[in-house]
Amino acid sequence: MSVVRRVGVIVLPMVFGPSDSFYAHVDDLEDQGYAVLRVDDYGVTEALKLIPLLVSGHRRNLLVNSIDEQAVIQVVVEAAAYLRDKDKCTTVIALGFGFGGIIALKAAAAANVDGTIAWYPHLVVDAEVTKEPANLAGLTRPTLVFYGAADKVTPGSIPIAQAVARQSEPLRVEVFPGAGHAFADRHVWRGMRSPLYDKTAAAASWTAALRWIHNLAAAA
Questions:
Q1: Of 33, 35, 116, 143, whose CB count within 10 A is highest?
Q2: Among residues 11, 6, 122, 128, which one has the least CA distance to residue 66?
Q3: 115 lies in a domain?
Q4: What pLDDT, in 10s, does the model give residues 1-26?
Q5: Of residues 124 and 64, which shows the higher confidence score?
Q6: Containing domain of residue 163, as a range?
Q7: Residue 106 forms part of a structural domain
Q8: Could you tell me if residue 132 is inside a domain?
Q9: According to the model, what pLDDT value does residue 147 have?
Q10: Cβ–Cβ < 8 Å for 185, 174
Q11: Is residue 155 part of a domain?
């Protein structure tokens, strides 16, 4: 008798919270037959979300610094437990974009997920952000990370990820030529179109992510 393996995916948005493209990703995962839990909010006020869109410089980091990161990680831990206990998922993936990717990486061990996918996570220390960046060293679970080669927001993260990947079998890094930061997000926030969106890289990374999830679940 064959065993049905149910896949659960926890989806985390960029720091601004869910956008139209975020919900499109959620819908697509559900169309694949996966059980999906999404993080809809990081507890940030609407006014604070506007700051990075209107001003530049260190004030952009007010948004990141205001988030209770440990509380969000705990949400991921509880979501993973729910998917296993209530939805009977045998494979659980944490998937995030930008800040959501950082949280997915940081929560992987505590949430005991089977794999993690992160789009353009920060891996370098930012003097104006009070939180530690994600750390890929010592990975024990399969991890897939995407970057754009023209990323000007966290360009120093790419060589770090590639160096770790050369020494760490669980980590796979894909870099898309010509794409910048946030290339997979068609909208930044509430229908606001992103000038960084790269349709080709976005589609290629999403296809690669779905294939990776399928293969990981099949091998479980």
A1: 116
A2: 128
A3: yes
A4: 334 469 999 999 988 788 888 999 99
A5: 124
A6: 6-219
A7: yes
A8: yes
A9: 98
A10: no
A11: yes
3-state secondary structure of 89: strand
| Distance between CA atoms of residues 210 and 95, nearest Å | 11
Give every CB contact of residue 203 below 8 A, 6+ residues apart in sequence: none
The confidence band for 66, taking pLDDT boundaries of 50, 70 and 90, is confident
CATH number of the domain that 105 lies in?
3.40.50.1820
The conformational region for residue 10 under phi > 0 = left, psi -120 to 50 = alpha, else beta, is beta
Please state, in angstroms and rounded to a whole number, the distance separating the CA atoms of residues 100 and 119: 8
CA 6 to CA 91: how far, in whole Å?
7
Q: What is the pTM of this model?
A: 0.89
Instruction: Tokens 């505590």: give the residue.
Output: 110
Q: Which two tokens stand for residue 37?
A: 């839990």
Decide if 43 contacts 67 (C-beta within 8 A): yes
Q: How many domains does the chain have?
A: 1
pLDDT value of position 194: 78
